[in-house]
Amino acid sequence: xxxxxxPISIVTLFSCSEExxxxxxxxxxxxxxxYTLGKNVAEHEELKIKIYLEMHKNWEFKITxxxxxxxxxxxxxxxxxxxxxxxxxxxxxxxxxxxxxxxTEPDEYEELLVDQSDVETGVQEAIKLLKVGDRxxxxxxxxxxxxLLGDRDKIPPLTTxxxxxxxxxxx
Length: 171
Description:
This protein has a domain of 102 residues: Roll (Chitinase A, domain 3). Strands 1, 2, 3, 4, 5, 6 and 7 form a 7-stranded antiparallel beta sheet that branches. Strand 1 and strand 2 form a beta hairpin. The chain has 3 helices and 7 strands. The chain is α+β, with helices and mostly antiparallel strands and 171 residues long. Helices cover 27% and strands 25% of the residues.
Protein backbone atom coordinates (compact mmCIF):
# COMPACT_ATOMS: atom_id res chain seq x y z
CA UNK A 1 0.00 0.00 0.00
CA UNK A 2 2.90 2.32 0.80
CA UNK A 3 4.19 1.78 -2.76
CA UNK A 4 1.11 3.51 -4.12
CA UNK A 5 0.78 6.29 -1.57
CA UNK A 6 4.36 7.53 -1.89
CA PRO A 7 4.20 8.29 -5.67
CA ILE A 8 0.76 9.89 -5.31
CA SER A 9 2.00 12.07 -2.45
CA ILE A 10 5.06 13.18 -4.42
CA VAL A 11 2.97 14.04 -7.50
CA THR A 12 0.49 15.95 -5.36
CA LEU A 13 3.24 17.83 -3.56
CA PHE A 14 4.98 18.93 -6.76
CA SER A 15 1.80 19.78 -8.63
CA CYS A 16 0.69 22.08 -5.83
CA SER A 17 4.02 23.83 -5.57
CA GLU A 18 4.19 25.01 -9.19
CA GLU A 19 4.18 28.73 -9.63
CA UNK A 20 1.34 30.30 -11.52
CA UNK A 21 2.30 31.95 -14.80
CA UNK A 22 2.72 35.69 -14.70
CA UNK A 23 -0.22 37.75 -15.76
CA UNK A 24 0.39 39.44 -19.08
CA UNK A 25 1.34 43.05 -18.76
CA UNK A 26 -1.15 45.67 -19.84
CA UNK A 27 -0.80 46.54 -23.47
CA UNK A 28 -0.76 50.25 -24.12
CA UNK A 29 -2.58 50.41 -27.46
CA UNK A 30 -2.59 53.88 -28.90
CA UNK A 31 -4.45 55.68 -31.64
CA UNK A 32 -1.21 55.59 -33.63
CA UNK A 33 -1.15 51.78 -33.31
CA UNK A 34 -4.74 51.61 -34.57
CA TYR A 35 -3.91 53.93 -37.44
CA THR A 36 -0.87 51.84 -38.41
CA LEU A 37 -2.83 48.60 -38.27
CA GLY A 38 -5.67 50.06 -40.34
CA LYS A 39 -3.22 51.45 -42.89
CA ASN A 40 -1.47 48.08 -43.23
CA VAL A 41 -4.78 46.24 -43.68
CA ALA A 42 -5.91 48.79 -46.29
CA GLU A 43 -2.60 48.54 -48.20
CA HIS A 44 -2.82 44.73 -48.24
CA GLU A 45 -6.40 44.85 -49.49
CA GLU A 46 -5.51 47.43 -52.14
CA LEU A 47 -2.75 45.15 -53.41
CA LYS A 48 -5.25 42.28 -53.79
CA ILE A 49 -7.63 44.59 -55.70
CA LYS A 50 -4.82 45.71 -58.05
CA ILE A 51 -3.92 42.10 -58.79
CA TYR A 52 -7.60 41.38 -59.54
CA LEU A 53 -7.76 44.41 -61.87
CA GLU A 54 -4.61 43.26 -63.68
CA MET A 55 -6.44 40.06 -64.56
CA HIS A 56 -9.40 42.05 -65.92
CA LYS A 57 -7.78 44.84 -67.91
CA ASN A 58 -10.72 45.15 -70.31
CA TRP A 59 -12.96 46.51 -67.55
CA GLU A 60 -12.69 50.27 -67.21
CA PHE A 61 -13.38 50.95 -63.55
CA LYS A 62 -13.94 54.37 -62.07
CA ILE A 63 -13.08 54.93 -58.42
CA THR A 64 -14.88 57.08 -55.86
CA UNK A 65 -13.40 58.85 -52.85
CA UNK A 66 -14.43 55.98 -50.58
CA UNK A 67 -12.52 53.41 -52.63
CA UNK A 68 -15.57 51.93 -54.39
CA UNK A 69 -14.74 50.90 -57.92
CA UNK A 70 -17.49 50.56 -60.50
CA UNK A 71 -17.68 49.66 -64.15
CA UNK A 72 -20.89 50.08 -66.13
CA UNK A 73 -20.91 47.26 -68.65
CA UNK A 74 -24.31 48.04 -70.12
CA UNK A 75 -25.81 51.53 -70.08
CA UNK A 76 -29.44 52.12 -69.27
CA UNK A 77 -31.56 55.10 -70.21
CA UNK A 78 -33.51 55.72 -67.04
CA UNK A 79 -32.92 58.01 -64.10
CA UNK A 80 -30.82 57.38 -61.01
CA UNK A 81 -32.47 56.44 -57.72
CA UNK A 82 -32.70 59.08 -55.03
CA UNK A 83 -32.71 58.90 -51.24
CA UNK A 84 -35.76 57.08 -49.81
CA UNK A 85 -36.75 55.63 -53.20
CA UNK A 86 -36.88 51.86 -53.62
CA UNK A 87 -34.46 50.41 -56.15
CA UNK A 88 -35.26 47.08 -57.77
CA UNK A 89 -32.02 45.18 -58.39
CA UNK A 90 -30.65 41.86 -59.52
CA UNK A 91 -27.26 41.05 -58.07
CA UNK A 92 -24.57 38.45 -57.56
CA UNK A 93 -21.97 38.80 -54.81
CA UNK A 94 -18.66 36.99 -54.97
CA UNK A 95 -15.17 37.18 -53.50
CA UNK A 96 -12.11 38.23 -55.51
CA UNK A 97 -11.26 34.56 -56.05
CA UNK A 98 -14.63 34.00 -57.75
CA UNK A 99 -16.37 32.23 -54.85
CA UNK A 100 -20.10 32.98 -55.11
CA UNK A 101 -21.68 34.19 -51.87
CA UNK A 102 -25.16 35.43 -52.71
CA UNK A 103 -27.32 36.17 -55.72
CA THR A 104 -30.90 36.86 -56.62
CA GLU A 105 -32.90 34.00 -58.08
CA PRO A 106 -33.33 34.02 -61.89
CA ASP A 107 -36.19 36.29 -62.98
CA GLU A 108 -36.49 37.76 -59.47
CA TYR A 109 -35.19 40.95 -57.91
CA GLU A 110 -34.56 42.48 -54.52
CA GLU A 111 -35.90 45.79 -53.33
CA LEU A 112 -33.45 48.17 -51.72
CA LEU A 113 -34.52 51.32 -49.89
CA VAL A 114 -31.87 53.85 -50.94
CA ASP A 115 -29.88 55.24 -47.98
CA GLN A 116 -32.35 53.65 -45.56
CA SER A 117 -31.57 49.93 -45.43
CA ASP A 118 -28.91 47.86 -43.71
CA VAL A 119 -27.23 46.98 -47.01
CA GLU A 120 -23.49 47.67 -47.01
CA THR A 121 -22.32 51.23 -47.59
CA GLY A 122 -20.58 50.38 -50.87
CA VAL A 123 -23.81 49.10 -52.44
CA GLN A 124 -25.70 52.14 -51.17
CA GLU A 125 -23.09 54.41 -52.72
CA ALA A 126 -23.06 52.50 -56.01
CA ILE A 127 -26.82 52.33 -56.49
CA LYS A 128 -27.00 56.14 -56.64
CA LEU A 129 -24.39 56.15 -59.45
CA LEU A 130 -26.50 53.90 -61.69
CA LYS A 131 -29.44 54.64 -63.97
CA VAL A 132 -32.37 52.33 -64.56
CA GLY A 133 -31.21 49.69 -67.01
CA ASP A 134 -27.52 49.91 -66.07
CA ARG A 135 -25.56 46.73 -65.50
CA UNK A 136 -22.46 47.29 -63.40
CA UNK A 137 -19.62 45.48 -61.75
CA UNK A 138 -18.59 46.81 -58.35
CA UNK A 139 -15.47 46.20 -56.32
CA UNK A 140 -16.28 46.96 -52.70
CA UNK A 141 -13.37 47.14 -50.23
CA UNK A 142 -14.07 45.69 -46.80
CA UNK A 143 -14.29 49.08 -45.04
CA UNK A 144 -17.44 49.89 -47.07
CA UNK A 145 -18.55 46.26 -47.26
CA UNK A 146 -18.84 43.86 -44.33
CA UNK A 147 -15.79 45.17 -42.49
CA LEU A 148 -13.98 43.52 -39.62
CA LEU A 149 -16.56 40.81 -38.97
CA GLY A 150 -17.74 39.76 -42.41
CA ASP A 151 -21.36 38.65 -42.43
CA ARG A 152 -20.70 35.66 -40.14
CA ASP A 153 -22.00 33.35 -42.83
CA LYS A 154 -20.50 33.36 -46.33
CA ILE A 155 -18.36 36.51 -46.32
CA PRO A 156 -15.17 36.34 -44.22
CA PRO A 157 -13.82 39.29 -42.21
CA LEU A 158 -11.85 41.97 -44.08
CA THR A 159 -12.97 40.74 -47.48
CA THR A 160 -13.24 42.67 -50.73
CA UNK A 161 -16.47 41.94 -52.60
CA UNK A 162 -17.21 41.83 -56.31
CA UNK A 163 -20.84 42.62 -57.04
CA UNK A 164 -22.59 42.30 -60.40
CA UNK A 165 -25.63 44.52 -60.29
CA UNK A 166 -28.51 45.32 -62.65
CA UNK A 167 -30.76 48.25 -61.73
CA UNK A 168 -34.14 47.14 -63.04
CA UNK A 169 -36.40 49.90 -61.78
CA UNK A 170 -37.23 52.53 -59.18
CA UNK A 171 -40.39 52.95 -57.13
